[in-house]
Automatic annotation (TrEMBL):
It comes from Cyprinus carpio carpio. ATP binds at residues 407-409, 503, 544, 567, 598, 678-680, 766, 772, 796-797. It holds the Pfam family Cation_ATPase. Residues 124-186 form the P-type ATPase A domain. It catalyses: a 1,2-diacyl-sn-glycero-3-phosphoethanolamine(out) + ATP + H2O = a 1,2-diacyl-sn-glycero-3-phosphoethanolamine(in) + ADP + phosphate + H(+); a 1,2-diacyl-sn-glycero-3-phospho-L-serine(out) + ATP + H2O = a 1,2-diacyl-sn-glycero-3-phospho-L-serine(in) + ADP + phosphate + H(+); ATP + H2O + phospholipidSide 1 = ADP + phosphate + phospholipidSide 2. Its EC number is 7.6.2.1. It is a multi-pass membrane protein. This is Phospholipid-transporting ATPase. Residues 819-1080 form the P-type ATPase C-terminal domain. Residues 36-90 form the P-type ATPase N-terminal domain. InterPro entries: ATPase_P-typ_cyto_dom_N (IPR023299), ATPase_P-typ_P_site (IPR018303), ATPase_P-typ_TM_dom_sf (IPR023298), ATPase_P-typ_transduc_dom_A_sf (IPR008250), ATPase_P-type_domA (IPR059000), HAD-like_sf (IPR036412), HAD_sf (IPR023214), P-type_ATPase_IV (IPR006539). PROSITE patterns: ATPASE_E1_E2. The keyword Coiled coil does not apply. PANTHER family: PHOSPHOLIPID-TRANSPORTING ATPASE IF (PTHR24092:SF57), PROBABLE PHOSPHOLIPID-TRANSPORTING ATPASE (PTHR24092).
């Protein structure tokens, strides 16, 4: 019973054994002692809350914040003891903060629920009760037989049972899992491959036994037991039999598979890192500052309590005639009285901790996040996708990034290969209008004529069109048909699928040039050379492997001659060539590589009858060997692939996304290091890194690859470290593969990190999804604790995205997993530059000033309260009315800082993008450094002293400043009592802190003007209204007619002006002094804010009063004064319609 309860609560996993038994179609055995295993359902969950746990879980997370927990304690203290202020002064702001934050976080989680529901509610077909039934993805159970059609993704991890092909094979692409776009072939066991109909599947008696779920995408161990006519047939199952959730079915009409891992137990889900609450560096700084202010608060409360008892040591102050103690008070415990007084002072000064800081920050983040979605520069017109914000808690973190970890396939590249150049027999060729043309020549043959190829060119094209593992798909409704029936080879329904994108690009290129691969059937391969069909018999395929870095095919020509075609990397083929234009080809390959092209070298070898017999015999022996099969195959392959005749080389471009190189260079200038983490091959990854500017041609490329042991890895790392020290002037780039990385992280983390940090760029290839996350965690937890950002487009990037401080998903071709689990989503990599350099810069300076300003204005608020206790014998008399205490942070001073934090721009967005180095000015949380924090705190104390003692000196003693210019009246005490004095201090404070923010504002909009001057006006109007009426629901009316009486004196107005000027004038002098003598890079760049040059595709700023009328027809702008009210208008590109509304307003 206890175990059942624990399982229901989630404390025990549903499976306890090391293996799981899956009965296909859920045909469980009938004997009584069988106990079914419990498996997870097929739901994918990326949300954080449910309807049941939202309130307790959200409240727990919110009260982990120091300020919220502190105000809860203060509120409870006010309820329990007699305090100077009402519990409402703490309870109302606390309730407001908690409610607003809960609504914001609930809304964001609701969006995640919607995304989950879209995936979990996707329609799928399963075999149940002898028929094909449509249901939802979340309803799939382990043991269900699922049907998947062409181009659909697999809804769970399935063991392949059958396909529309007689041999039971299917082809899939795992681009969304491991980034590889090549086509992979998967197999069904022969006993189930024949079950191609629902009726035969229903009668299938089979059981799958396999390991429990694990995250490794490439490992699967199991067996299937099929019962046929009372006989049990056992077949092994491996990765080639498992279809992973998230992979996509290609080149196959349909398949049937049995679900073995579902939902959060699928390999894709297990590669997701557990969601954790991400907290920005600014929030951590806020907590540190709050602890310091809590220390100040405790110090003031303890000091006031001690001074109170020191003062009351004299009897005349302990029990004056007008305040006699009761017997209960005289006999009460001194310790309890001390604690009670301490708590009362704590409540009196508690507003030094700004509770409204959190709600203002939450509002700023939530409202500010809309600007990313409204930014037209982050809108991708072709796909009709705008930038998306999944969580607004990390906006300012975009301005603090030090490391960017990016995927390659689909993130840096478009996932498309294009043939560019080739070298044949020492001559370079280009493709012009589908024809091979030697370099330097133009196409001269008339359209429609058959080009004439010499022997070398024709042999080269035939080698390229035959040396591959490409397969062809014909879109037919009647069935697969015979591929050779498409004799012309130019059927519009024909589509190539290749084991690598290079192969597909090369076969498509030879097709355009006249040598068309028609298809393969069994042992035969057919090509068409300018209309003439040729059939070749495929004798052997020498598969590609990472050590040889080449692949070969042995064919029998129509003439009966045996020939070997080989293609591979330059270093893997050229050393084995003995004839052909070797040196010229080597030069051409280097030239191709300098252009960033992916190169392959093509060669051939002709066998005599005796030579082929020897080759065939050796291959058969190696492939049937039970011991050391891999080593023997390598030996035979090396024996075959020698004495080659060089035919030429190819240059294929992996098409990069637009402006990738410029984006990486901008990030580098901004002081951000870029690491590329990819699951792709070593050569492919290096080639793309070179072409996208991640690696420079002048960079010294270091390699940590193919390490076999810890000692070997450590020795290589030491060699690299020595080499970096010796060549410290040269920039270095590091290439690491997954296997070597595992060794390096096992025992040599520090050495590995030392090498990495001294490299300008790092490339990690052959990375498993969790390895990507480990690399990010390694940098995150290093002593410097840099801020990291991860960006990717596939499910294989989800762990990395969740691990980094900031995760960005690319809305690419590999599904939506990365987007759903990211913090931000953009359509193209190039948008990352503006997201960081502009939006990140703005968000950080805004929130940094917001945080400092809040502490400053609360020090100004509470310090006079503390000083006042010295003048009232520490009687805990409040200086301000309770209504003022409650509304100071909520109404009187809240809107100006909120609007500032939404619209402030220290530098024009165009300047920030053109000068990425300005990003360095705000790096490492520089605007929230301890030095800056101390400056704002010191400034707050100084202003508070000026408020208090300025008011005291000017209004407290000089009787000529009383009333309406009169010298002295009998009711002087009534006119200038403590409420009048406190109101004067409060009035000066509200004006000063508001104007202080105005001094900090560089970018003025009509909204800034409205809330700045409107807040001051609202304070005066409210105070007049509040003090002019006797409110029946208030117990006391201390402020009745006080404000009117105060403002009726011209002397009071004079005092207000003198005090405000005395506070702000030194600040103005300081700003002018520093700006002219020690300007920062940002301040130097602010000169561009007033007058932005009008470029070919840029429209500068203009005054708001003319923006609406002239937005669509601006041709020239004149520079205006900085004091004008400015608003950004739409930054439009040539040919685009000018933007309107909020989207245009922010399109800068």
């Amino acid at each position: 019973m206890i175990r059942w309860i624990r399982q229901q609560l989630g404390f025990d996993p549903p499976h306890q054994s090391d293996t799981r038994t899956v009965y296909i179609a859920n045909k469980f055995p009938q004997h009584g002692h069988y106990i079914p295993q419990r498996f997870a359902d097929n739901r994918i969950i990326s949300s954080k809350y449910t309807i049941w746990n939202f309130i307790p879980k959200n409240l727990f997370e919110q009260f982990r914040r120091i300020a919220n927990f502190y105000f809860l304690i203060i509120f409870l203290v006010q309820l329990m003891i007699d305090t100077p202020t009402s519990p409402i002064t703490s309870g109302l702001p606390l309730f407001f903060v908690i409610t607003v934050t809960a609504i914001k976080q609930g809304f964001e989680d609701w969006l995640r629920h919607n995304a989950d529901n879209e995936v979990n509610g996707a329609p799928v077909f399963v075999v149940r009760s002898g028929s094909l039934v449509q249901t939802r993805s979340k309803n799939i159970r382990v043991g269900d037989i699922v049907r998947v059609a062409k181009d659909e993704t697999f809804p769970a991890d399935l063991v392949l049972l059958s396909s529309d092909r007689a041999e039971g094979t299917c082809h899939i692409t795992t681009a969304s899992l491991d980034g590889e776009t090549n086509l992979k072939t998967h197999y069904a066991v022969p006993e189930t491959a024949v079950s191609q109909s629902v009726s035969r599947l229903e009668s299938l008696q089979a059981v799958v036994e396999c390991q429990q779920p694990e995250a490794d995408l490439y490992r699967f161990v199991g067996r299937i037991t099929v019962t046929q006519q009372g006989e049990e047939i056992v077949r092994p199952l491996g990765p080639e039999n498992l279809l992973l959730r998230g992979a996509r079915l290609k080149n196959t009409k349909e398949i049937f598979g049995v679900a073995v891992y579902t939902g959060m137990e699928s390999k894709m889900a297990l590669n997701y890192k557990c969601k954790s609450q991400k907290r920005s560096a600014v929030e951590k700084s806020m907590n540190t500052f709050l602890i310091i202010y809590l220390g100040i608060l405790l110090f003031e409360a303890i000091l006031s309590t001690i001074l109170k008892y020191a003062w009351q040591a004299e009897n005349k102050w302990d029990e004056p005639f007008y305040n006699q103690k009761t017997d209960q008070e005289r006999n009460s415990s001194q310790i309890l009285k001390f604690i009670s007084d301490f708590l009362a002072f704590l409540v009196l000064y508690n507003f030094i901790i700004p509770i409204s800081l959190y709600v203002t920050v939450e509002l700023q983040k939530f409202l500010g996040s809309f600007f990313i979605g409204w930014d037209l520069d982050l809108y991708h017109e072709e796909s009709d996708q705008k930038a998306q914000v999944n969580t607004s808690d990390l906006n300012e973190e975009l301005g603090q990034v030090e490391y960017v970890f990016t995927d390659k396939t689909g993130t840096l590249t478009e996932n498309e290969m294009q043939f560019r150049e080739c070298s044949i027999n020492g001559i370079k060729y280009q493709e012009i209008n589908g024809k091979l043309v030697p370099e330097g020549m133009t196409e001269d043959s008339p359209d429609g004529s058959v080009p004439c190829l010499n022997r070398e060119e024709e042999l080269f094209l035939k080698a390229v069109s035959l040396c591959h593992t490409v397969q062809i798909s014909y879109d037919q409704t009647d069935g697969p048909g015979d591929p050779f029936s498409h004799a012309n080879g130019f059927s519009p329904q024909m589509e190539y699928y290749a084991s690598s994108p290079d192969e597909k690009a090369l076969v498509e290129a030879t097709k355009r040039m006249g040598v068309t691969f028609i298809g393969s059937h069994g042992e035969n391969m057919e090509i068409k050379t300018f209309g003439k069909a040729e059939k070749y018999k495929l004798l052997h395929v020498l598969e590609f492997d990472a050590d040889r870095r080449r692949m070969s095919v042995i064919l029998q020509k129509p003439s009966g001659e045996k020939v070997l075609f080989t293609k591979g990397a330059e270093s893997a083929v050229l050393p084995y060539t003995t004839s052909g234009e070797i040196e010229k080809t080597r030069v051409h390959v280097d030239e191709f590589a300098m252009k960033g092209l992916r190169t392959l070298v093509v060669a051939c070898r002709h066998f005599s009858a005796d030579e082929y017999q020897e080759v065939d015999r050796r291959l058969h022996e190696a492939r049937t060997a039970l011991q050391q099969r891999e080593e023997r195959l390598v030996e035979v392959f090396n024996f075959i692939e020698k004495d080659l005749e060089l035919l030429g080389a190819t240059g294929v471009e992996d098409k990069l996304q637009d402006k990738v190189q410029e984006t990486i260079e901008a990030l580098r200038l901004a002081g951000i290091k870029v690491w590329v983490l990819t699951g792709d091959k070593h050569e492919t990854a290096v080639s793309v890194s070179l072409s996208c500017g991640h690696f420079h041609r002048t960079m010294n490329i270091l390699e940590l690859v193919q390490q076999k042991s810890d000692n070997e890895c450590a020795e290589q790392l030491r060699r690299l470290a020595r080499r970096i020290k010796e060549d410290h002037v040269i920039q270095h780039g590091l290439v690491v593969d997954g296997a070597s990385l595992s060794l390096a992280l096992r025992e040599h983390e520090k050495l590995f990190m030392e090498v990495c940090k001294n490299c300008s760029a790092v490339l990690c290839c052959r990375m498993a999804p969790l390895q990507k996350a480990k690399v990010v965690r390694l940098l995150k937890t290093s002593p410097e604790k840099p801020i990291t950002l991860a960006i990717g487009d596939g499910a294989n990037d989800v762990s990395m995205i969740q691990e980094a401080h900031v995760g960005i998903g690319i809305m690419g071709k590999e599904g939506r997993q990365a987007v759903r689990n990211s913090d931000y989503a953009i359509a193209r990599f190039k948008f990352l530059a503006k997201l960081l350099l502009v939006h990140g810069h703005f968000y950080y300076i805004r929130i940094a000033t917001l945080v400092q300003y809040f502490f400053y204005k609360n020090v100004c608020f509470i310090t006079p309260q503390f000083l006042y206790q010295f003048f009232c014998l520490f009687s805990q008399q409040t200086l301000y009315d309770s209504v003022y205490l409650t509304l100071y942070n909520i109404c009187f001073t809240s809107l100006p800082i909120l609007v500032y934090s939404l619209f402030e721009q220290l530098v024009h967005p165009h300047v920030l993008q053109s000068k990425p180095a300005l990003y360095r000015d705000i790096s490492k949380n520089s605007l929230l450094s301890f030095k800056t924090f101390l400056y704002w705190t010191f400034l707050g104390f100084c202003h508070a002293f000026v408020f208090f003692f300025g008011s005291y000196i000017l209004m407290g003693e000089d009787t000529t400043l009383m009333g309406n210019g009169q010298i002295l009246r009998a009711n002087r005490q009534l006119m200038f009592g403590n409420w009048t004095f406190g109101t004067l201090v409060f009035t000066v404070m509200v004006i000063t802190v508001t104007l202080k923010l105005a001094l900090e504002t560089h970018f003025w909009t009509w909204m800034n003007h409205f809330v700045t001057w409107g807040s001051i006006a609202f304070y005066f109007i409210f105070s007049l209204f509040y003090g002019s009426i006797i409110w029946p629901f208030l117990h006391t009316q201390d402020m009745y007619f006080v404000f009117v009486q105060l403002l009726s004196s011209g002397s009071a107005w004079f005092a207000i002006m003198i005090i405000v000027i005395a506070c702000l004038f030194p600040d103005v002098i300081k700003k002018v002094f520093y700006r002219h003598l020690q300007p920062t890079s940002t301040q130097k760049s602010q000169m561009y804010t007033n007058c932005v040059a009008i470029g070919d595709d840029f429209i500068a700023l203009q005054p708001l009063s003319r923006a609406k009328n002239q937005l669509g027809k601006i041709s020239l702008l004149r520079p205006t004064r900085e004091s004008d009210a400015w608003t950004p208008c739409a930054v439009t590109q040539r040919g685009k319609t000018p933007a309107h509304g909020w989207a245009g307003w922010w399109s800068e």
